[in-house]
Design a protein that fits this description.
This protein has about 450 residues and is of the alpha+beta class. It is built from 13 helices and seven strands. The protein has a five-stranded mixed sheet, with helices on one face. A two-stranded antiparallel ribbon has the order 1-3. Strand 6 and strand 7 form a beta hairpin. It comes from Methylomonas rosea.
């Protein structure tokens, strides 16, 4: 019953790959700016050709990721881990060319570890710990030393320096290099703290969203379980009541023949009414028995929305012929829009109309507002009764409520479940001018789907 959450997991993995693509773009920008500042701003002699080659390789990987996100194939956790490992190797090569473990931005190895721990299961995170630790250890011993930041002085001036001046100059150079290293470590801490805080906040949002999805799934599963139990009970009741109704129908028919119309007109007329009500009960039990199980695809047919509204109102009029109805149809509608006229939805709308008619005074009637576009059918049913209790609005449709004289009971729960099951929405509210209002939104058949049904159906 929680199957509708499974596609969410696949979407999350693809979303992780998209975030990896974004983070790699940020890394490319940061590395490019750092190399430019180090070479042109600080005058550090770096192996530029090798550095730009590494940046180009990372760009190619990111281009592949961009193309991969546009393909419909499923993204796997192993694929994401493999790409993060490539990022680690690229970073290792960049750091190898710029001092290795002595580089002040060696903290950058924390980023792949953080990303792995957030996006992937625990086993991948521990593997990334081993990989980054090994690479860090190797860079301690094997690297291209980072040149010192020295002032540009003419060679003859350097030759004329006394040993004390030369020592003082070396101390100044060491201080500059140390200050640069401290600045790099400070920047690394600030950047890492901000990145960790950002990921923790995003992770918290994701967890809250998944908790809401799980709560909705549990509620839907519980509601479906109640519907199944009610359907089973309805089928059993229809079977048990079939025989007594048949017996009553036979006896009523015999009594109508014995009490002829010309001798007992009043009694005969009452028996005719009883027969009609028995036929209605038998028809309702037949529909209940047929609809007690799960919804079947063949139970619905494709109709124009305008024709479907006429059919719903026609069926409702057989039950409430004397109720006054004010029908409002928006002039801006798509006359070619079509809907799947599913039987349970029709009964749900009729149930809402019946409840509104029973709540409204006879002289006031009810209002029925209809509008639709290419995608959605919106219905608004308003009565002029006392309105709905506040506690009823809070739980309306979420669980069966105790039936009252307005008839708001199990039928409303089934109505809510049916509309939600088909991807629709239903809302209950009280109007300031008096009375209750029920708003229903139902998805319409997309024109592409309609074309497929015509072509292949």
């Amino acid at each position: 019953m929680l199957s509708h959450i499974l596609p969410k997991a696949e979407i999350s993995i693809r979303e992780n790959l998209r975030w990896l693509y974004i983070l790699r773009n940020l890394m490319l920008f940061a590395v490019t700016v750092a190399v430019f500042i180090a070479v042109n701003g600080l005058g550090i002699n770096l192996p530029q050709n090798q550095l730009w080659l590494a940046i180009f390789a990372i760009s190619i990987l990111n281009l592949y990721t961009w193309l991969r996100l546009r393909t419909p194939e499923e993204v796997t956790e192993h694929e994401i881990f493999s790409q993060i490992c490539m990022d680690v190797l690229a970073l290792a090569y960049l750091l190898y060319l710029t001092g290795g473990a002595s580089n002040p931005i060696i903290w950058v190895f924390l980023l792949p570890l953080i990303v792995t721990a957030i996006m992937l299961p625990q086993a991948y995170a521990w593997n990334m710990v081993i990989i980054t630790s090994c690479v860090y250890t190797v860079l301690i011993a094997y690297n291209v030393p980072l040149p010192a930041v020295e002032p540009h002085m003419a060679h003859p001036a350097m030759a004329e320096m006394t040993p004390e001046m030369s020592l003082q100059m070396h101390l100044m150079n060491d201080r500059r290099y140390f200050n640069l290293h401290v600045f790099g470590m400070w920047f690394g801490f600030v950047f890492s703290a901000g990145l960790v805080a950002f990921f923790v906040v995003e992770l918290s949002k994701t967890l809250k969203e998944r908790e809401r999805n799980l709560a909705d799934a549990r509620e839907s599963a519980l509601r479906d379980e109640r519907v199944v139990s009610l359907g089973t009970l309805a089928a059993s009741a229809a079977h048990d009541m079939g025989t007594p109704l048949g017996t009553i129908a036979i006896l009523t028919h015999e009594m109508a023949e014995e009490l002829s119309e010309h001798r007992y007109p009043d009694m005969h007329q009452k028996l005719v009414i009883v027969q009609q009500q028995i036929d209605r009960c038998k028809q309702a039990l037949s529909v209940m028995s047929a609809s007690a199980g799960e919804m079947r695809a063949e139970s619905g047919k494709v109709m124009l929305v305008s024709e479907y509204i006429d059919e719903v109102l026609g069926q409702w009029r057989t039950h409430k012929a004397a109720t006054r109805l004010k029908l409002f149809i928006s002039p801006d509608v798509d006359m070619d829009a079509r809907v799947i006229a599913e039987r349970t939805v029709t009964h749900s709308i009729i149930n809402i109309l019946n409840n509104a008619a029973e709540a409204s005074p006879v002289d006031a009637g009810i209002e029925f507002h209809v509008e639709w576009d290419e995608e959605t059918l919106n219905l608004k049913i308003r009565d002029f009764g006392p309105g709905l209790p506040a506690e009823f609005i809070e739980f309306a449709g979420h669980q069966p409520v105790k039936s009252n004289k307005q008839g708001m009971g199990v039928g409303l729960f089934l109505t809510y479940t049916t509309i939600k099951r088909l991807g629709g929405k239903i809302q209950f509210s009280n109007l300031e001018s008096g009375g209750a209002c029920v708003e229903i939104s139902l998805p319409l058949l997309a024109k592409e789907s309609m074309h497929e049904r015509i072509t292949y159906g």
